[in-house]
Amino acid sequence: MSVPIHIQNISKSYEKVEALKDVSLDVKAGELFGFIGPDGSGKTSLFRILTGLILPDSGTATVGEMDVVKDFKKLRQITGYMPGRFSLYPDLTVAENLNFYASIFKTSLKENYDLIKDIYVQIEPFSKRKAGDLSGGMKQKLALSCALIHRPQLLILDEPTTGVDAVSRKEFWELLNKMKQSGITILVSTPYMDEAALCSRVALMQNGKLLAADSPENITGRYNGQLFSVHTNKMHSLVTDLESVPLASQVFRFGDTVHITSHQKNNELFVQLISEALMEKGHSTVQIEKQQAVVEDCFLALMDKDLVI
After folding, report:
1. Are residue 111 and residue 239 in the same domain, yes or no?
2. SS3 of 263, please?
3. Residue 264 pLDDT greater than 90, yes or no
4. Domain of 231?
């Protein structure tokens, strides 16, 4: 069983810092919904409001039929929450942590073993090891097991893959997709733009504001600029040199290349302008390739408010 979420005009400030600014969105029951944005974008504050840990300054939010303020006690019974920092008891073993959290919700590892089996089998060999002695990836799996031990209808994961290796990140998202099949509504936040493509829908956030909320395919499909990647022998000065290209709308580093965007519809003309500008700046071995926009391109474009419809 899963629950829908309705967020209406939520705002939250900490003294003079506006963490959330009039955020409204809906999450469908059973969705794997991602909140994508850098540190300070408001993801954690929103999650803490949805779990009843803090109160909004204004606005409302409901999980199913439950108001997050009035019904916070009932809400916590159906919610599994995995905070950004490892928050289990480091002096207890893996098995002791799991049994403790199961007892809080009056259940047991045996009763709900089927739900956490895919995760627990990976940490079961370390069941007698203290949680504080586990690797980052194993701590992550233990925390997820504890969040699921009471078979929640809503699972909230705050940056669960931050600080873990690439293999653990991949395994973690595979586990989330399996859990999605069981009907749990899953909210997950991440600063990694590449993880957006793994969600049913995503909310792009920056400085407490909601920039867009849609499926990754629809967000990238609305990108209306002409996008190219550029690589030369002088990468250290490439961004600055590309900013002087006529008709260029946006320039930013992207992996080992630089992305440049224009509203110019004549691609051949724009490529020629790039080549000429870089030759004048002393660049050689210039490689220019047309690119399809990904979520990171759209996020940066939304910050400029002129490249995405």
Report:
1. no
2. coil
3. no
4. 226-292
